[in-house]
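Why does this matter for the project? Reviewers at the last site visit asked to see concrete outputs rather than summary tables. In response, this paragraph embeds two records directly. Each consists of the residue sequence and, immediately after it, the corresponding structure tokens. Nothing has been edited or filtered.
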Amino acid sequence: MTTRSQRFPHRGFTLLELLVVMVIIGLLAGFVAPRFFAQIGKSETKVARAQLDSLEKSLDQYRLDVGRYPSSEQGLAALMERPSGLTRWAGPYLKKAVPLDPWGNAYVYKSPGEHGEFDLLSYGKDGQPGGTGEAEDITNW
């Protein structure tokens, strides 16, 4: 007659086998994670460029209606709320509130601009002028 332990031998993983598997998973994560996070940074930059393009189009529509771009003091808020003294304002020019850049900072708007009739920019991930890579400024010029 066979005993229970002979019919169902207890087999499991040794500690060494588990450690080898964990090291392999760690190595794979070490190779994949940097590439994954680099793609996230690129997508945030693309979102910022798309938002700048949308804001530019809204500013152009504002200019067609009013005859000029909003002043720096009025800022991008003039796209959502009628500035005092404007009769030809036909906004709001955005469907939602003025967006923040993908890093949670407000877009910088200057009118008149140094590079055109208006300057519109995001300072990138670091929120400071200048920078390279993900911290590079994203501009409309």
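We now turn to the second protein, recorded in exactly the same manner.
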Amino acid sequence: MAKHIHVSEYNKQSETLQLACECGWKGATKEAFGEIHEAVMDFECPKCDKMLLIVNLIVDAEKFYGNKNKK
């Protein structure tokens, strides 16, 4: 299962954060396949494509979801 962290934690650890996969791959987040979505950023193993890390990008949930519900 992928590890989940908040963007504030990711920002503190981004230079030193290491990922490891069941397939044996190990490396830094910058070596993994990263993709940014509207509310999350995710990182996959470059060897087997398994999801390793999901970073929650929502800083203010009320503001984010409140804007989504307005018509």
